[in-house]
């Protein structure tokens, strides 16, 4: 009897400690997610508070003996490191007669290691069934930054204006790039729409996020937002029953889109100048609506030259690429340009070479197309957001990109599908 009582006491004590640990970890993950909304350039390196938290989370997982590293994923990164290092040190000097510094290569390999850490974190957090805590934190941060956007658009303080607005006009929140900020807000929008909250809250939060996206003046963000809204509407239209109400709504939407298509130029020519007079940031978006070709060349985008340069580099080293930490040096010295590709696919194609790049995106495509639980569909939508935005921005070192891939790798493994 005494032994039984003693055992029950010990068991209750262990359960209490585990509950405390679980609560602490959950709070920690929410804070980690919150700081995914923050990034700053320090000594030429893009650093976030979430990087420090990611190491602490990994240490916590290691100390609790729950650290599992997917073997095939690790193997892929080892091959990637060896291949890109060979390109950086041996191939680039031969083909381009350019020798990048050791520091440039080291800094960029550090970024690659950070990418792997976030992928591993995504895998392990998903395995612990706490990934929604991270995205809850991300969404809370996005909403806070969205509220600040409204406040600082009315109350102008020089120091705050410089901190939160790129060029004094484009809102960037706690990020260093308005495009990256806009895509992060869209990710939070996708997550909030997937959450089980009241429609009124969902509409309020969504409206706040959309306003902050528009305030960023990001063409990439706007195009991505339109794409994801249309995708969501199409998916919903195919899923809902064909009752009279849904047919009328779909028909009305079709009529509206048809009207916009036929009178698009006239509507935009009339409406946009009036809006831009009231909201100056809209002026930057005018070319996107009136002349798409101009939009990707003017207004600081210059993507036609960036993409052309990237394609030239791929032609010269298609198999091994140019390696890590060499891109800017080559474009400066060889092409007198000095800019990244402004395209995730081209950026990786240049740096990694086509075989490894095609392997990665083929695998991502398989992750997106494999049937999995409905409760993780939002992860696929979030990944699609990054892939769409990646057409106009280099997102290869974006932390949340690798975090989401890590999550989907775990869920694919859990369903005995496949693993990279």
From TrEMBL:
Residues 206-360 form the O-antigen ligase-related domain. It is a multi-pass membrane protein. It is found in: Membrane. The keyword Transmembrane helix applies. Keywords: Membrane, Transmembrane, Transmembrane helix. It holds the Pfam family Wzy_C. The chain crosses the membrane at residues 52-69, 75-96, 108-126, 138-159, 180-197, 203-234, 246-264, 352-369, 381-411. GO terms for cellular component: membrane. This is O-antigen ligase-related domain-containing protein.
